[in-house]
Design goal:
4-stranded antiparallel sheet; 4 helices; 34% strand; 8 strands; alpha+beta; 148 residues; 4-stranded mixed sheet
Length: 148
């Protein structure tokens, strides 16, 4: 498992090839997030952010048959079309790889301690969490147990 929070860009193809080298791997699912339209600054707490991302990947590995995973998240000044996040999951089967990749990305949006400031023509503004991101993460919560 690889978790990296870094300023520099990443090579998604190389990261995918790295997880594909194990002959037991039958599926590799990946997601690359890019900055849309508005430049931004991302801040984080070094150490804490990596620990939280590691917990998210470990949770995915408990739910699905994940053989390996890579999560790279950038911070600092980012402009439109810059890559911002990479999630790669290797598994024996595509269903596990797809589900774990989506789960990790949904939880990155809600649990990883990043703060985003958008830079518009009128100046910078800190961005609040989106309700849609919370809703996406909530769908992974186990159903409440029925009593009675």
């Amino acid at each position: 498992m690889k978790v990296s929070v870094q300023r520099e860009d990443f090579d998604a193809g190389m990261e995918i090839r790295t997880l594909s080298r194990d002959p037991r791997v039958g599926a590799v699912a990946s997601f690359v997030g890019v900055v849309r339209e508005i430049a931004m600054t991302l801040e984080h707490y070094a150490g804490m952010t990596e620990r939280e991302i590691t917990k998210i990947v470990e949770e995915a590995s408990k739910r699905w048959k994940v053989m390996d995973a890579t999560v790279i998240h950038r911070y600092g000044e980012l402009k439109p079309i810059d890559q911002i996040v990479l999630v790669v999951v290797a598994s024996a089967h595509r269903g596990d790889a797809f589900a774990a990749c989506e789960f990790i990305m949904d939880y990155l949006k809600t649990r990883a301690p990043f703060w985003k400031k958008e830079h518009r023509s009128g100046g910078g503004q800190w961005v609040e969490a989106k309700v849609s991101d919370d809703e996406a993460a909530q769908r992974w919560q186990p159903a409440p147990k029925k009593t009675g």
